[in-house]
Structures are given as structure tokens and as C-alpha cells.
Amino acid sequence: MIVLVLGGARSGKSEVAEGLCRAPVTYVATGVPRDDDMAARVALHRARRPPSWETVEVEPGDVVDVVARHRTPVTTLLLDSLTTWVAEAPDFAVDGAALCEALRARPSLSVVVSDEVGLGVHPSTEAGRLFRDRLGELNRLVADHADRVLLVVAGRVLSLDRP
């Protein structure tokens, strides 16, 4: 089962995703702290996680391989997040099809977190528009493969049913 949890910055999406997990959990962290703000966000995420959760911090090129290798039948995989994966990739290009294939091959729960950037201000730079478009396309692809899609707005959870 794949659950995609979408939301804006500071919406509570990661906390919602964490609440969906059943032990044991492998937490796949894609964020790379490059400034004080990001370091503080990563520290908050680490502090919230139970010590029993395995944490795998991955480089952008390793995300699909890590997901594909974690196929333990009873372990929940929490991938947080697609946003930082795309942001760290050259030209914001990632292999979404390979990720979806790896997620579908897992015999247990996979929870994937991503920012919903299509509801925000129109980016003023070409790079900003490319990032928004690439992440939006990836979100749609993962949503197409997900069994459930949740949108978190101001800490409230909305279930997004298939059309």
C-alpha cells in the first residue's frame, strides 16, 4: 500500500505521515541541511522520531535504490520527502517511474511525503518554475500509483479521492 501525503510548508504533513506508520519503520530522509533553517527543520524531524525507527539519510541519486532495497514484508517505509529529492537533483530531474516501480514492489506500507507547490505564488525565475513543474509532475505520477492521497492544510487532513 502506498500513501502520498501532500501539503504546503509547515502544514503538518510530516507529522501526519509519521502518524500513519506502523512499527517497525525505516525513515528515508532526503533532506540535506545546507543552511541553519534547514538544519533546524531536520533536527525537529529527528527529535520527533522514536528511537526504534531506522533512519537512512540518502543522497539524491540513491533514493530509488534505497526504496528498492527496503522490501522487508513487515517494515513501513516513510520517504520524507519528494520535495528535497527533486530540489537536490541536477535540473530537478528524478526518475519518478523507477521510484513508483520500487514503491509498488514493496510488500508493506510505504508513506511518501511531498510539498504541494502548485497552490503557491507563481515563481519569478525560470529555475523556480522548472522546480514547481517537475515536482508537480512527480506528485501526479506518485498519486497515480498511490492507494491513498492525503492533503494536509493547516494541520487538517483531507482525503483526495480518485476522479
**Mean pLDDT rating:** 94
Major sheet details: 7 strands, mixed
The number of distinct β-strands equals: 7
| Percent of residues in β-strands | 15-25%
Quaternary structure state of the chains depicted: single chain
CATH class: Alpha Beta
- Helices and strands: which structural class? alpha/beta
Please describe what this structure looks like.
This protein is an alpha/beta fold and 163 residues long. It has one domain: 3-Layer(aba) Sandwich (Rossmann fold). 40% of the residues lie in helices and 22% in strands. The chain is built from six helices and seven strands. The protein has a seven-stranded mixed β-sheet, with helices on both faces. The longest helix has 20 residues, at 126-145. The model has no long low-confidence stretch (mean pLDDT 94).
